[in-house]
Amino acid sequence: MTPEQRDRFRERLETQRQEYLDSRMAARESTQPVQLDQASVGRLSRLDAMQGQAMAKEAQRRRDVQLQRIELALRRIDSGEYGFCNACEEEIALRRLESDPAAALCIACASRQEQE
Protein backbone atom coordinates (compact mmCIF):
# COMPACT_ATOMS: atom_id res chain seq x y z
CA MET A 1 0.00 0.00 0.00
CA THR A 2 1.37 3.37 -0.95
CA PRO A 3 1.50 6.31 1.47
CA GLU A 4 -1.08 8.10 -0.71
CA GLN A 5 -3.48 5.16 -0.42
CA ARG A 6 -2.93 5.04 3.35
CA ASP A 7 -3.64 8.77 3.59
CA ARG A 8 -6.81 8.34 1.55
CA PHE A 9 -7.99 5.57 3.90
CA ARG A 10 -7.16 7.73 6.94
CA GLU A 11 -9.23 10.55 5.48
CA ARG A 12 -12.19 8.24 4.81
CA LEU A 13 -11.97 6.77 8.32
CA GLU A 14 -11.81 10.20 9.93
CA THR A 15 -14.83 11.33 7.91
CA GLN A 16 -16.75 8.20 8.92
CA ARG A 17 -15.78 8.73 12.57
CA GLN A 18 -17.15 12.27 12.48
CA GLU A 19 -20.38 11.09 10.84
CA TYR A 20 -20.87 8.46 13.56
CA LEU A 21 -20.16 11.00 16.30
CA ASP A 22 -22.65 13.41 14.74
CA SER A 23 -25.33 10.72 14.44
CA ARG A 24 -24.73 9.71 18.07
CA MET A 25 -25.50 13.25 19.19
CA ALA A 26 -28.59 13.45 16.97
CA ALA A 27 -29.95 10.13 18.30
CA ARG A 28 -29.62 10.89 22.02
CA GLU A 29 -33.21 12.03 22.37
CA SER A 30 -34.63 8.80 20.93
CA THR A 31 -32.84 6.69 23.55
CA GLN A 32 -34.23 8.65 26.52
CA PRO A 33 -36.50 6.75 28.95
CA VAL A 34 -40.15 6.48 27.92
CA GLN A 35 -42.57 8.35 30.14
CA LEU A 36 -44.93 5.94 31.94
CA ASP A 37 -47.68 8.39 32.82
CA GLN A 38 -50.82 6.70 31.45
CA ALA A 39 -52.82 9.90 31.81
CA SER A 40 -50.73 11.67 29.20
CA VAL A 41 -49.82 8.72 26.98
CA GLY A 42 -52.03 5.77 26.12
CA ARG A 43 -50.89 2.17 26.59
CA LEU A 44 -50.39 1.45 22.88
CA SER A 45 -48.60 4.74 22.33
CA ARG A 46 -46.29 3.92 25.24
CA LEU A 47 -45.58 0.45 23.85
CA ASP A 48 -44.89 2.00 20.48
CA ALA A 49 -42.52 4.51 22.10
CA MET A 50 -40.78 1.73 24.04
CA GLN A 51 -40.29 -0.28 20.85
CA GLY A 52 -38.89 2.82 19.13
CA GLN A 53 -36.57 3.37 22.08
CA ALA A 54 -35.33 -0.25 21.92
CA MET A 55 -34.66 0.10 18.20
CA ALA A 56 -32.81 3.39 18.79
CA LYS A 57 -30.67 1.77 21.50
CA GLU A 58 -29.74 -1.09 19.18
CA ALA A 59 -28.86 1.36 16.42
CA GLN A 60 -26.72 3.25 18.93
CA ARG A 61 -24.98 0.02 19.96
CA ARG A 62 -24.18 -0.73 16.31
CA ARG A 63 -22.87 2.80 15.81
CA ASP A 64 -20.65 2.38 18.86
CA VAL A 65 -19.25 -0.91 17.53
CA GLN A 66 -18.53 0.67 14.16
CA LEU A 67 -16.95 3.70 15.82
CA GLN A 68 -14.70 1.38 17.80
CA ARG A 69 -13.69 -0.43 14.58
CA ILE A 70 -12.83 2.93 13.00
CA GLU A 71 -10.77 4.01 16.01
CA LEU A 72 -8.83 0.73 15.90
CA ALA A 73 -8.18 1.14 12.17
CA LEU A 74 -6.85 4.66 12.75
CA ARG A 75 -4.53 3.29 15.44
CA ARG A 76 -3.31 0.62 13.01
CA ILE A 77 -2.53 3.37 10.49
CA ASP A 78 -0.55 5.26 13.14
CA SER A 79 1.40 2.13 14.12
CA GLY A 80 2.08 1.07 10.52
CA GLU A 81 0.01 -2.11 10.83
CA TYR A 82 -2.89 -0.93 8.68
CA GLY A 83 -3.68 -3.13 5.69
CA PHE A 84 -2.45 -6.33 7.29
CA CYS A 85 -4.72 -9.06 8.64
CA ASN A 86 -4.86 -9.25 12.44
CA ALA A 87 -5.08 -13.05 12.26
CA CYS A 88 -2.67 -14.25 9.56
CA GLU A 89 -0.69 -11.01 9.09
CA GLU A 90 -1.06 -11.19 5.30
CA GLU A 91 -1.91 -8.06 3.36
CA ILE A 92 -5.62 -7.26 3.12
CA ALA A 93 -6.77 -6.79 -0.47
CA LEU A 94 -7.22 -3.14 -1.43
CA ARG A 95 -10.69 -3.92 -2.81
CA ARG A 96 -11.70 -5.14 0.66
CA LEU A 97 -10.33 -1.98 2.29
CA GLU A 98 -12.09 0.15 -0.33
CA SER A 99 -15.33 -1.57 0.65
CA ASP A 100 -14.66 -1.42 4.41
CA PRO A 101 -11.69 0.74 5.42
CA ALA A 102 -12.02 -0.48 9.03
CA ALA A 103 -11.56 -4.14 8.05
CA ALA A 104 -9.04 -5.87 10.31
CA LEU A 105 -9.16 -9.31 8.68
CA CYS A 106 -8.50 -10.57 5.17
CA ILE A 107 -11.37 -12.29 3.34
CA ALA A 108 -10.11 -15.81 4.17
CA CYS A 109 -9.77 -15.13 7.91
CA ALA A 110 -13.08 -13.24 8.06
CA SER A 111 -14.85 -16.14 6.33
CA ARG A 112 -13.25 -18.61 8.71
CA GLN A 113 -14.31 -16.51 11.70
CA GLU A 114 -17.93 -16.33 10.46
CA GLN A 115 -18.10 -20.12 10.13
CA GLU A 116 -16.98 -20.68 13.73
Automatic annotation (TrEMBL):
The keyword Zinc applies. A zinc finger (dksA C4-type) spans 85-109. InterPro entries: Znf_DskA_TraR, Znf_DskA_TraR_CS. The keyword Zinc-finger applies. Pfam families: zf-dskA_traR. One of its GO terms (molecular function) is zinc ion binding. Residues 80-115 form the Zinc finger DksA/TraR C4-type domain. Gene3D superfamilies: DksA, coiled-coil domain. Transmembrane segments: none annotated. It comes from the Bacteria. Keywords: Metal-binding, Zinc, Zinc-finger. PANTHER family: RNA POLYMERASE-BINDING TRANSCRIPTION FACTOR DKSA, RNA POLYMERASE-BINDING TRANSCRIPTION FACTOR DKSA-RELATED. This is TraR/DksA C4-type zinc finger protein. It comes from Desulfatitalea alkaliphila.
